[in-house]
Amino acid sequence: KIWYIAGINGEAVEKQIDIDLSFIGKGKTGTIYNDNATNIAMLYSARFDTAPLGNTKITLQPNGGFLIVIE
Q1: Are the C-beta atoms of residues 9 and 61 closer than 8 Å to each other?
Q2: What's the CA gap between 49 and 28, in Å, rounded?
Q3: What was the pLDDT predicted at 43?
Q4: Are the CB atoms for 4 and 33 separated by under 8 Å?
Q5: CA distance 49 to 26
Q6: What angle (nearest 5°) sits at the alpha carbon of residue 22, between those of residues 68 and 30?
Q7: How many CB atoms lie within 10 A of CB 11?
Q8: Do 57 and 7 form a contact (C-beta atoms < 8 A)?
Q9: Whether 7 contacts 65, CB under 8 Å
Q10: Which of 26-41 are b and which e, b meaning 16 or more Cβ less than 10 Å from the residue's Cβ?
Q11: Are 2 and 71 in contact (CB under 8 A)?
Q12: Please, which of 13, 25, 35, 39 could form a disulfide with 61 given CB 3.0 to 4.6 Å?
């Protein structure tokens, strides 16, 4: 299975949210795409392993969003 998890921030202030990814299970690799905090025209991306994950903090930039793809 491939999971797609997305979120948006419709406000003009930065927000932090917690997402529980424990339902995904272990042994999967994910990539998060998020707005760059210093240059809104650029994206930040990072790869991660689902093994140690439970609740994950994500920072949403003002009027920004994120996408997580887990394979």
Answers
A1: yes
A2: 6
A3: 87
A4: no
A5: 8
A6: 30
A7: 10
A8: no
A9: yes
A10: eebebebebbeeeeee
A11: yes
A12: 35
Quickly state the pLDDT bin for 53 (edges 50, 70, 90).
low
- The DSSP-derived string for 9-67 is --SSS-EEEEEE-GGG-SS-EEEEEEE-SS-TTSEEEEEEESTT-SEEEEEEPTT-EEE
Q: What is the pLDDT of residues 1-39, one digit of tens each?
A: 899 999 999 999 999 999 888 888 888 889 999 998 887
> How far apart are the C-alpha atoms of 41 and 48, rounded to whole Å?
23
Radius of gyration for the alpha carbons in the chain, expressed in angstroms and rounded? 12
